[in-house]
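As a warm-up, study this chain.
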Amino acid sequence: MGLSTSLFMLMHFLALLSLYNLIFASSSFVQPLCHDDESFALLQFKESFIIDQSASFETSAYPKVSSWKLESDDCCSWDGVGCDKDTGPIPAEIFQLTGLIYLSLSHNNFTGPVPSSFGNLTELIHLDLSMNNFPGPVPSSFGNLTELIYLDLSYNNFAGPVPSSYGNLTKLINLDLSYNNFNRGALDWIGKQTNFIQLGLANLNLNGSIPFFIQNLTQLTDLNLDSCNLTGHIPSWLANLTQLDVLRLGKNGLHGSIPSWISRLMNLEMLFLDYNHFGGIVEFDIFLKLPKLSYLRLSFNQISLLIKPSNNITFPKFRLLGLGSCDLDEFPDFLKSQDELEVLTLSNNKISGLIPNWMWNSSKKTLWNLDLSNNFLVGFHQLPVILPWTNLENLDLSNNKLQGSLPIPPPSILSYKFSNNTLTGEIPQMICNLSVAIGFGSEFCHK
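Now compare it with the structure written out below.
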């Protein structure tokens, strides 16, 4: 009776133990006694890592391996370990677990080169090494993992070329290389893998136009190219990626117009184009043709957004709407019908006058972040005693021309900014009693 080669392990280290999450996939959870050599192999694996006290960001993390002790005769009862009675004993070295199919070592701050021994785990279908400090080149031995479907190397310090052996990963459909130091030329092999569904290349040094090799990936549903130093126009061939439901091109140097053919990407749910250099008049109608769109960021370009009156028009139900710096001179009236917004940004526009009464009824239960800063707002048609958004956490009214008394946020508020206005009167004691980051010191509160 042995430990399964399709073993489930979940290790979540906090404080002195840094192994956050290691999972060995299993089809069942029977609990037989394991052999001494199997217990020893797990203990050897436990001791093989450098431990970092600040490893985990998870508040729920705790040292699961504290139960891993030689005096316990059944390693299958150790916290985070499950056994299957149907297969043979575990090999002496953990990287000789040739039946391992699921392995996650994310959120650990591991350092040092990634062992080439990973190439022995040829049955792996899921490998996650994200959120560590692995440096240098990635091992060419990863090319042996021809069963891989999911590979996440994001948030490390990998650099240099990606070995040509990665062209062997023909079953790979989910790849995330974001937040590393790979250069553009290291990624050409990706264009030969036409089965990709999800591709994360955010914060890589891709300097130049959107990589041409992406045009071959017609099955993509999720493409992340945020913060890649991209320049040039959005290429027309991107319109052929009709399966996309997530397209992220934010925080680059893209310019020209936002193409109207974006409305052909009918599956889009999330579109991020913010923090680029797009210009010209953009008709909001092109986004109304995307029935699934719920996350839209257009903020901080040089566009003039033209929004027609909402009569007899069906608008998507937005959850996030970033329309900062879009040359708006009034509140878009389609917001009247929005009841699922969580984040709304209208900052850095030319909106003047009073905040309309109907704004109080927009997304009252869902809105948690509202930014109206850097406009020309002078006040409120009717100021409620407490702002009506019951889950509001962040409110920014700074750099306007607001007059009169200060609006009182709900108890849920965490950050409240209202500097550089012309408000008068005393700061209400209700605000002083809130545990909130606000734009004044406690000495300004009326006692």
